[in-house]
Amino acid sequence: MTLLETLVPFPVVLPLAVAAVVLAAGERLPRHVPEALGIAAALAVAALSAVLAHGALGSTPVYWFGGWVPRPGVTLGIAFAPDPASAGIAAFTGLLFAAALVFAWGFFDEVRSVFNVLMLLFLAAMQGFCLTRDMFNLFVWFEVMSVVAYALTGFSLRTASLAGALNFTVINSLGSTLMLAGIGLVYARTGALDFEAVRTAVDRMGDDPVVIAGFCLVSAALLTKGAILPFQFWLADAHAVAPSPVSVIFSGIMVPIGLFGYAKIRLQIFPGSPDAMDILYRLVLGIGCATAVFGGLLAWSQRHLKRLLAFSTISHVGIMLTGVAAVAPVGLAGFLAYVVGHGLVKGTLFMLVGILLAEKASVDELDLRGLGRDIWPAGVATAVAALLLGGAPVGILHGGAHLIDAAAPPGPAGWVVRLAALLGTVLTGGAVLRFAGRIYLGLGADPGDEAHAPTDQEREKAGRPLWLMLAPCVVLLAIDLLTPAGVVEGLAARVVPQFGVVGPAVDLPQPAAWGLLMPWLALGGVLLVATLALSGDRLPRQLPRVQASVLTPFFAGLNRLHTGVVNDYVVWFAVGIALFAGWAAL
Amino acid sequence: MSPRLRLALLILAGLAILPGAAHVIGALPPFGHPVAVYGQSVNALLPELRHVSNMVTAINFDVRGFDTVGEEFMLLAAVAGTVLLLRGGRGEDRVDVGGRIGGRPVSPRSDAVVLLCRICGPFTFIFGVYVALHATVTPGGGFQGGVVIASALLLIYIGEGYGRWRQLVRVPVLDAVEGAGALLFVAAGLLPVAMGLAFLTNVLPLGTLGDMMSGGLMLVENAGVTLAVAGGFATVLIEFMEETRATDSETGPEDGE
């Protein structure tokens, strides 16, 4: 066994072992030691996964736990297959955890050891989810991720946070149940759980109804984790109430990783099933477009900053899903880059909102108007993040967006996809720029009595040093901003063939007029909508009337769908399943 | 959404799912169909390869041992999450001895209950250890044995009262047992890694088929699971019992302890 192969289980085993030590030692550990151990473990995991990703370029090692290599005709054991894409996403996860834990320094003094144990388990679960090559093992790490996330959401124990955590738990547990059922169906038909063994069987069977049903159920589960319409209702409730460092992880990686799992099963299990691929290329692509627009509109209409960012995440996972569901493999390359770029920017934004919660004790845009002037460095960072989210043509996120754009199908369908991505980008970037202008520059009309937020009093642990909270924001933004988009695109295109087990080389898009125009169009749109929203009284007289008669009722209607009542969410979930079932039956 | 609209939408969704579901159910392997090739291979191979007669244990701790690592830590996460939510809700004043709410009568236990618990408690404990130890031979194992052990601890509460129970069963000890158990499982996996083999490779002597000491490394992993499950369940029981003290803050300081 080579040294590289020996390292394969450690991204999972290391944080598990550290978590067990922290739990066993408990309160006996000196103050801040659990936090320091957590940060060190996250950085070590990032380094380990990065080494694996680099070492796997060219040929992917396969690591059989317990030495259970496949026997002729039957694969019994569990394997990890850290191809460069999977290990790369795993490495990025470690980095984001390190940043979130630095940001959380001193946040959880009261329950420090328990919080750190949970975060370490969360990290280990995501590593396992990325690296595994076994359907049931994938489910195990998916569940560990969920169990930890439920507890972390309810952490602050206010009525709202418990309600949010409960909605999250019910909807995601439904998803988990369906995933288990789906895996059961696939196993019943193929007699295997290992990705490669299942793929071989699926290739042989083609369009077996049981296999397709399994695909639909697993799709529903992963799209629930990935917060895709109509499975997304839990997300805003959970993100709005989770502590900021936890929201960083939720939006930055936990939600996109659901789609990452989806990309993986699409490439490594079901490519030989024409029916499954038809569902993907048409239904799922359409759902992705709808999600991008829906999330963008809802993000724009929020004044609660965490809900705003939560809906912007929904919009961006919609854009990511169009990359996963594209026929052209360049879409997958774009998806991988987009996950990293989006995670860097969105993670930063949640930390910046966390700074407002700690320093100003509010997350209400109108309430905070002009109050951010004394913490202007956070304002600068927010503006930069807004422009990056809004499609500025630099950095990793832009590289991903460019590749996803190039993967749009030919003909009118392609323009629908492009338009959806453009709308999502403009609305989310514009919404963030709008609140940055209002809070840090005091722009926009004086809200008067409306400033008193309808939300309950919120505050996160104050008295943490501002520079320590800002440092991870600056680092993450710098990574996104300073990595040249061309390099990212090249790297993403290089790792996709191995991600898809054996695939043809991915062609990078030729510079086309639209590809060059798109980011500027998006950026212009972002500036335009933010200016319109903030110019207040100086607008032409017709605009407020349109606002009152058309836009306000429209946005109110969209928001009324998010009742916070879990019964409604379950019904929407059932509608989503019906969508898949109906499509597959036709 | 009004309840009526909700119901209508749900029924519509159900109707849309129905034809597809019927089609899939019709295509499933028939009831009583021979077990999948996976199960047949395990039954055929493992008694010879691993010298164990309980195939469930062989799958849990050997063939798919890495899944069990994940499940082990899933339990740990669930316990830690429960502790986080419940303890946080009560405030952080962790009292290690059981308190008593003023004004609530403490009815003395009958001698029969005390006697019964003193007899059953130790036997239940021993039974838990027995179930855990015979994991590789008969149905049972660390998960089941750990739960039985934790419920034996609960008999102390019924027999001796809340105060004595909290004196005998300490939360930090339970945390240590739980963490140590999980760590033991990970350490068992790392032993073969140190020898240059894959994680969780069964490197210990396998023993004789049907003997309690068969299965090699599985015995160590099983011991780790026993400790972690017993510690975890006992922790959850204590946290649930502590919840009944939430009335403390509601009754006001003059009625409190």
Compact description:
Chain A is an all-alpha fold and 586 residues long.
Average pLDDT, all residues of chain A: 89
Helix content of chain A: over 70%
Instruction: State the strand order across the main sheet of chain A.
Output: 1-2
Tally of helical segments of chain B: 10
| Total E-strand runs of chain A | 2
Structural class of chain B: mainly alpha
What is the CA-based Rg of chain B, rounded?
A: 24 Å
**What global shape of chain B is seen?**
globular
Distance between the termini of chain A: 50 Å
Largest interface: A-B, 78 and 67 residues
- Would you count the extended β strands of chain B for me? 0
What is the makeup of the main sheet of chain A?
A: 2 strands, antiparallel
Average pLDDT confidence of chain B is: 85
Percent strand of chain A equals under 5%
Radius of gyration of chain A: 23 Å
What do you see in this structure?
The complex is a heterodimer of chains A (586) and B (257). Chain A has helices at residues 3-7, 10-25, 33-56, 84-103, 112-131, 135-153, 159-190, 195-205, 209-225, 233-241, 244-268, 274-300, 305-324, 330-360, 376-389, 395-406, 412-441, 466-482, 485-499, 513-534, 542-561, 566-585; strands at residues 63-64, 79-80. Chain A has 586 residues and is mostly helical. In chain A, strands 1-2 form a two-stranded antiparallel ribbon. In chain A, helix 11 (244-268) runs antiparallel to helix 14 and helix 13 crosses helix 16 (395-406). The longest helix of chain A is centred in the first third of the chain and has 32 residues, at 159-190. Chain B has helices at residues 3-27, 37-50, 55-63, 65-90, 111-133, 142-160, 162-168, 171-194, 217-243, 247-251. In chain B, helix 6 (142-160) packs across helix 7. The two termini of chain B are 47 Å apart. The longest helix of chain B has 27 residues, at 217-243.
